[in-house]
Write a structure and sequence with these properties.
Mean pLDDT: 89
Number of strands: 13
Strand order of the largest sheet: 5-6-7-3-8-9
CATH topology of the largest domain: Rossmann fold
Structural class: alpha/beta
Strand content: 25-35%
Low-confidence stretches: none
Number of helices: 10
CATH architecture of the largest domain: 3-Layer(aba) Sandwich
Order of helices and strands: EEEHEHEHHHEHEHEEEHEEHEH
Largest sheet: 6 strands, mixed
Number of domains: 2
Distance between the termini: 37 Å
Length: 297
């Protein structure tokens, strides 16, 4: 499992607004990685930097262990804004034009149409397509040059329940082919249904990252703080720690099954650390994320 994307201290300020603040992330090969956060949390800005649409204020990132170059970016397909499609041309013709622009073989078109389930509508004019079909054509276009990585920004935004279900099933299908997918969303439900791993952004800062499978696990959360610089590193060594969220000046430690606050307290004490604050809260990660996502600031 090699790192497809490695982000180090990525930061983007627009004037006084810190859109993305000191972001560290790693996405590995074959993961479906969700970037979860409310609108305005920096998801789109982050994807824009990764695709070279905007330049970072500071920090860096590598794709496949290399500095990003135009040639390297060709291994990445992205659906960020709506691609340029002509309303009076068919889906097929639109893809042929996109293939020309991207300099990739038109022979790839039937395969991508099949994948996004538009084969039977390929000769219909784009303007007759539903919103869900337009989004599927955009995904098909991003897959034309057979990229290793697919980036999707809010892929189901504005779609009806059926359109949402179709896009999600297509994402799963693409992932099953072994492609790495990075997906931004403000819906916890979406991330839980299609992603393997995820990160949560809040006002441009990373508050959590880990496997999606952990979200429903171990309901016990211990809120802890201590007068120690690298407390987070120490907490990560605690074998009862499933994951950590840094919030309101303290650390929320999600306990693995069978571990409790007193185990954590003893662990810290044995390392000469006295907790200034240690409270056991029974709050699932899911509830925490829903709270973060519902904060409209």
């Amino acid at each position: 499992m090699s790192a497809v994307l490695s982000i180090q201290g990525l930061t983007k300020h627009f004037g006084k607004i810190k859109a993305v603040n000191d972001l560290y992330l790693e996405v590995r090969s074959g993961q479906v990685f969700g970037v979860l956060g409310p609108n305005g949390s920096g998801k789109t800005t982050t994807l824009g930097m990764l695709m070279g649409v905007t330049n970072p204020t500071s920090g860096s990132f590598t794709w496949f262990g290399e500095e990003p170059t135009p040639a390297l970016r060709r291994k990445i397909g992205a659906v960020l804004e709506h691609p340029i499609f002509y309303p009076y041309l068919s889906g097929q013709r639109n893809l042929e034009l996109n293939a020309m622009i991207k300099q990739c073989p038109v022979e790839n078109i039937p395969r991508v149409l099949e994948l996004v389930e538009l084969t039977d509508r390929k000769d219909d004019k784009y303007k007759t397509y539903s919103l869900g079909m337009k989004q599927r054509l955009a995904i098909a276009s991003a897959l034309l040059n057979d990229p290793t990585v697919l980036i999707l920004d809010e892929p189901t935004n504005g779609l009806d329940p059926m359109g949402i279900a179709e896009i999600r099933s297509i994402i799963r299908k693409i992932a099953a082919q072994g492609k790495t997918i990075i997906l931004a969303s403000h819906l916890l439900d979406e991330v839980q249904k299609v992603c393997t791993h995820f990160a949560v952004l809040k006002k441009g800062s990373l508050v959590h990252t880990g496997p999606v499978a952990d979200v429903g696990q171990g309901e016990v959360i211990v809120e802890v703080n201590a007068a120690k610089g690298n407390l987070q590193d120490v907490l990560l060594q605690f074998q009862g720690c499933a994951s950590i969220v840094h919030e309101n000046e303290s650390y929320q430690v999600l306990m693995r099954e069978g571990f409790h606050g007193d185990d954590l307290n003893r662990f810290l004490f044995e390392r000469g650390i006295v907790a200034t604050h240690l409270v056991t809260r029974k709050k699932s990660l899911e509830q925490q994320f829903l709270e973060i996502l519902s904060e409209h600031h």
